[in-house]
Amino acid sequence: xxxxxxxxxxxxxxxxQNSYAQELPIKTNQGGLFSIGLRSTTSIFEHKxxxxxxxxxxxxxxxxxANRLNTEWFADYMRGNINNLASRTDYHIGWSVMxxxxxxxxxxxxxxxxxxxxxxxxxxxxxxxRSNRISKNSSAxxxxxxxxxxxxxxxxxxxxxxYMFHLGPDVHAHIENEQVMLxxxxxxxxxxxxxxxxxxxxxIADLWHGKKKK
Length: 214
Description:
elongated, signal, 1 helix, eight-stranded antiparallel barrel, mainly beta, Outer membrane beta-barrel protein, OMP/PagP_B-barrel, Porin, 10 strands, two-stranded antiparallel sheet, Beta-barrel_OMP
């Protein structure tokens, strides 16, 4: 949350002092709107284990193609704890397509559905022996829904809930002969978890139309 607080103060400062603080001139064609933002990332449960098992932060870029169609390009860093046996670090980098239920530029509430793909890397490190570690690379698909809470035409706070399916073998930690064992599953599989994002975004440019008026 400290990251989001810092980001909020920074973007509010830009919004107040920058010439971009004026309203967006584009009212009928939103294609080309380009945004930047940061977010917190929380994994609520994984497989059948409920509870918060990962927390981190990330950032995203958005490029809108039409009034109801937007894209998001993101990267996340997340840390978690596995039964006090090992720490888990996840890295995500990917993209998503967002479909809006309204074509208005910035209503107070703007809901949407979202789906996409990402590449990810997971590292497990034994809490009692940092040299005991294991990692794996895989990809994932994700889908869910979100909502923009528009502060101004250029700035929004966004909440997103997505279920992420990881395509590939998973890694686990367990006790065997009173020692922590880190295990990578063989073969391929589908493992999933619910991912929540809370972020803030700022439209910095209209790449296709430019600034038509001051």
